[in-house]
Amino acid sequence: MEIQTIGAVPFMGTIFSILVSIGVPIALTVIGKKKFGAQISTFFIGAGTFLLFAMILEQILHILVIRVLGLDAKTNEWLYYFYGACAAAVFEETGRIVAMKWFMKKRFDLPNAFMYGIGHGGVEAILIGGLANIGGLINMIMINNGMMQASLAILPEEIQAQTVEQLSTLWTTPQSYFFASGVERLSAVIIHIGLSLIIYKGLKDSRKGIIAMAYGCHFLVDFAAVALAPRLSVWFIELIIFALAVAIFMLAHRVNKDSSVGKVSAQG
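^ thats the sequence. predicted structure below, dont judge the formating
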């Protein structure tokens, strides 16, 4: 397989995804601080909670369940989807509860719950959408200016073939799909903000039903994403996930309608 040059559309889609994945969290953080009076440090509480519960603790469980027990989509497809969605919901929503109860006692209000959601979803967007697409953009530039071909020429043929195979997604993927990463990260940020506001309301009013609602919504989104992936086109899935994101945010607004963000000032 030969390396093929990359067209303009993949470049534009990748840049779009980078701007959304990094720009949206930054813009929302500024809004949370300037308009609602939330504390910037709450962003980092959300970010740290995501890293600990989703990127470390949840991954340890995945190693035990998926690698040790051998659970995967080939051996037991629906159990694998159920487990993955369940694990994501349990770890991330539990992380929200722990963070809000133990690290946000002096700032336990709606603006900071909003800021927490930005941090939780924002760091995920930056790591998964931003950095990954920056790497892809660098590869595209190197391919089009010939640097990639020159660097591969000094490697053994077997390594060259493996590298080109990995890079082939850059010219074999449908061009519009390069925009999908940005749309996916936008939906995810909206979802994390919505779920954070729902958990906040459940904790504030000591209503276990509202807290359970957040777990259920998270499970639904993740289950839909993985179960539909082999069955529907990327853009149809993104449309469904975006619709779910909007629905979750509207639900969060509804359960918090008696606690206007604009009327609550940050404490501490």
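The CA atoms of residues 32 and 38 lie 5 Å apart.
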